[in-house]
Amino acid sequence: MPPRGSRGPLPPLLVLWALAACAARASEITFELPDNAKQCFYEEIAQGTKCTLEFQVITGGHYDVDCRLEDPDGIVLYKEMKKQYDSFTFTASRNGTYKFCFSNEFSTFTHKTVYFDFQVGEDPPLFPSENRVTALTQMESACVSIHEALKSVIDYQTHFRLREAQGRSRAEDLNTRVAYWSIGEAIILLVVSIGQNTIPLGVKRVTQQGQKEGELVDKCIGSRIHIVMKSDKEIVGTLLGFDDFVNMVLEDVTEFWFLEEKDLKCEDMIFICTLRINAKSK
Amino acid sequence: MRRAPPGGRAGGTMAALGEALRAAVAALLLLGWSAHGLYFHIGETEKRCFIEEIPDETMVIGNYRTQLWDKQSESFLPSTPGLGMHVEVKDPDGKVVLSRQYGSEGRFTFTSHTPGEHQICLHSNSTRMALFAGGKLRVHLDIQVGEHTNNYPEIAAKDKLTELQLRARQLLDQVEQIQKEQNYQRYREERFRMTSESTNQRVLWWSIAQTIILILTGIWQMRHLKSFFEAKKLV
């Protein structure tokens, strides 16, 4: 503090400095916003201070978040829905507590990581105690301009770091998704192909009876068989094939049927002695 | 800000003294109150975590102040003795770097030894107050990283630097921070590249595997169907 005679102006200067020092703040915070959650931050700002709010979503879902900035009276100064990145500058119109909120309420199950940088006022000078009555020397002004340039370099670096983090998060997401999808699809492919080829075709008949009959008739394919029907008609032929209902396809067929006694003539009669095997199953 | 003394030299001195005292107290209060500008509310048993992505050998200083909600006066108490905050800091590998309990107002410091995302978690130590659910805490928080942690007036006084030297020191610190960040950037880019290449490999191997599986399945399917049709005497 500059040495002064009276004690009068000293405390006000102290207060002024305190105000100036407190008024110039930069809060850079990265936090995790769970799904269906809203998080609010408050700051007391003096009137006339130029403030900047900048935010970016780093990881999670579609990388977007709702943001809202309100002044002490509740008037909404800035409101954006589902924004990935934005920067908003305003001048405080009155003293009081300003509030800004980030909301992830539209998302059901993705957590978001949000970065924000809330700059209030200008940076405090390096030497708050002195009052500048003389102009800066060339060296000093060169230092000041280098300092400003380096500050903007650091700023760009931060932006780049955030974008890189975002890109990396997407790449890692992609990587895990490809892994899960590959495994999943391999399993689905195998299950579907095996199921497709076995279920509609390979289901065995339940009845033993049908099986036995089928097997026996199956053995006769290609050989001559003699079929005796209920209507007393008989058919002799070469069995080519049959189906489940024992519809048969025969070749070189001879059909026999019985005539009435009065219609019989001696020339018509042929005596056939064959051994008939009745394969009648129970 | 300057008020005329009420009158008389003795009265003037007393008034000036009173004014000075009041202003000093106001300044101190202002310093104390608004020194930590940003604040937020958390539940009494809630844990709040913040992420700091920093290069290695970087110092991080966090200042916080906690206020408890008083139901009777419907406001936040200026200070609550006995209320503590537990601060836990984890490094990118998940190892705990700092795990300490501080009072209702405190300052924690740590230096990173591995580059990456460090997690700073705060929660209050009020286990007994968990019974009275609905308690709210106002936490003022200020986290400074790297070059911002330096207190230049202090450095100037300690090393007895002139103004120019102090400015040069500040520039050096800034450049060093930029350098560290660039180095960290290189390491991050390498990780990114590894992830991308891994994805590329996986996609490649998966395509080949899928083609082989399809061909084998097709062959098996045709053979199975052929034997089935032959068995059913349809071919």
From TrEMBL, chain A:
GO terms for biological process: protein transport. One of its GO terms (cellular component) is endoplasmic reticulum-Golgi intermediate compartment membrane. Its main location: membrane. It is a single-pass type I membrane protein. Keywords: Cytoplasmic vesicle, Endoplasmic reticulum, Glycoprotein, Golgi apparatus, Membrane, Protein transport, Signal, Transmembrane, Transmembrane helix, Transport. PROSITE patterns: GOLD (PS50866), PROKAR_LIPOPROTEIN (PS51257), SM (PS52002). This is Transmembrane emp24 domain-containing protein 7. It comes from Zosterops borbonicus.
TrEMBL record, chain B:
Residues 47-145 form the GOLD domain. It is a single-pass type I membrane protein. Keywords: Endoplasmic reticulum, Membrane, Signal, Transmembrane, Transmembrane helix. PROSITE patterns: GOLD (PS50866). Pfam families: EMP24_GP25L (PF01105). InterPro entries: Emp24-like, GOLD_dom. It comes from the Eukaryota. It is found in: Endoplasmic reticulum membrane; Membrane. The lineage of its organism: Eukaryota, Metazoa, Chordata, Craniata, Vertebrata. The chain crosses the membrane at residues 20-40, 203-222. It comes from Zosterops borbonicus. This is GOLD domain-containing protein. GO terms for cellular component: endoplasmic reticulum membrane. Its main location: endoplasmic reticulum. Belongs to the EMP24/GP25L family.
